[in-house]
Amino acid sequence: MAAVDEAVLARVRAGMRGLSPPGHHTKVYKEECMYSFDTPFSAGGLYVNLKTFQGVGSDFLDLDHEKGGAPTTLYLHEAWTKVPAEEEAPIDSGKAPAKLAIGVEGGFNTEGPKMTVVKDHSLVVMPGRLRVALPCVDLPELVNNVVNAVMAHESVTAQETVAAWEEERRVSKYAAALEQLDTGRRISPNPKDWRCDETGATENLWLNLSTGHIGSGRQNWDGSGGNGAALRHFEATGGRYPLVVKLGTITPSGADVYSYAPDEDDMMEKTEKTMAELQVDLNMRFEFDAITEAGAHLVPLSGPGHVGLVNLGNSCYMNSCLQVLFALPELARRYVGPAGAIFRSAPADPATDLLTQMAKVGAALVEGRTGAPPPPPAPMDADGAATADAPASAAAAAAGGNAAAAGGGRGGGAATQTQSVRPLAFKTLVGRGHHEFSSARQQDAAEYWGHLLELVGRAEHAGKARLGLGADDPLLQALFSFATEDRTQCLETGAVSYRRATTTNLALHVPLEAAVNAADVERYRERQAKRQKLRDSSATAYIGAAPLEGAEGSGGGAAGGGGSSVVTASEGGKDEPPVLPVVPFDAVLSKWAAPEVLDDYRSAAAGGRRVQATRRARFATFPPCLTVVAASEVPPLSLGYMYVYAREDTDAAKAAAGGGA
To answer: Model-level pTM?
Structure first.
């Protein structure tokens, strides 16, 4: 490698002031841009600031340098590409995950065929984007140390993904008044000095938090894990000191603590594995299913307005809310248009700024800024046409077509990468401090909707100038906020009372009796009942009278009409697709607005006695966008729906918004 010019080294030394390697708990954003979804796989790669350890895409490199305020800034440039794995170097595609993460190295694989990542690194000096190929022995030792530390450091993406899957820890009742005996013992910080006090074992060691005793964990069914010395010490001390911590798991952010107390046996399982490792095992046994339109021929789309959000593990509730929000022109005008100004005014850590994250997600969904890597080159024949064995995405790109449509199929692949983004930073920020939304458990979309609107409303109120809003301009919540009015009339005295409530969504119950296909639903349920009888009796067909003309004896269903037919238990091992009730929205809203009789109403006008009364609901005000949360019971499932309607979408909404006293 050629020696680095002295003038270049002078520029590098000018940017060394304040440089130091990241610590163990330092956040290193080296897998995704702070302002976009650019990654090291994107066309321009990713630039990691060696002082702030924040990554930015090529389009935001100048902005990051300007925001830093230093005359010279050093960056680690990452440019990665994926190539098919070498045949002579087989990859164990079935290798068990070691991390609680999805789509990252060591985590759960969702990308399909195994690929080899070719990584190219260089040092970039700003301004001017002066580049020095790495590794380079001519660079100052401090610069090389910082670069190597950043490359070896675990990214924030992996840390936050693992944190979301952390198991909920219950607090032991013995922790508040923990007794700690002064035995004079000091535990060495060197793991090589740790030994079981009873047996001398060096693995799976647990420290009693009261006595300082180090004992081995309990033995597993196969003889591994330990010898039970820690439990024997608990029993020998009269069961007074139940709390133990696993040595090697203690960090500033937590530790693995176990209680031997019999009344806390259900708190956790104590093994030689860490709790994170136990969670990996759990998720390996859990099947994540993709939901698609059964039987439909779908053509994937990509580009502005056709960008998906990757399921981060039970995050569909968040994804659906974001897709709804940014389908509204008002949100695009507020966050996508002025995104540049929002980014320039962002705080030192943009990952903690909700306005920045809203603009980042909005630019991806509305304008198609996914940071997708360029398609691989397609092999060409002598006439310049893509050959038959070219990858689908590359062939489509070579033909000027839609690579996403060419990719097709379920799961990852090039098509999914080009038409979707991973909003992990957004999920982490919005869920921070919330017991449920910070986890990877399933959540209710309507609850998240209200939580998100509240957080965004606060951020907009504090950052109106950043969004270009005037003092009187409405916040996001005003798009969905409306008031309802309940009118209650005492039937004994005729007195009327009114009550108003302001909300951001309308909760409705779906009246299944108003289904337009009620007859079809009933016939389907009858067929299902007959099929169950067949299964119970191990029969293959239920025969009533003669089958109707056109009925198929092996079709798994029955012909319509009033006669009898042949119903088989199943068709090819598959059940008949369910027939669900179809209820018009006008009927749902009319049900909400219909008068209701109250038989046990305490009337002030009647001296506080319980009498009959009528109550009906109306809109007191109507929002620009009406959010509806509808629920129904369709045995054996409880179904929930969430819709957003414009003001003019329904006649029933207009009627419910009107009406007098």
So the answer is: 0.67
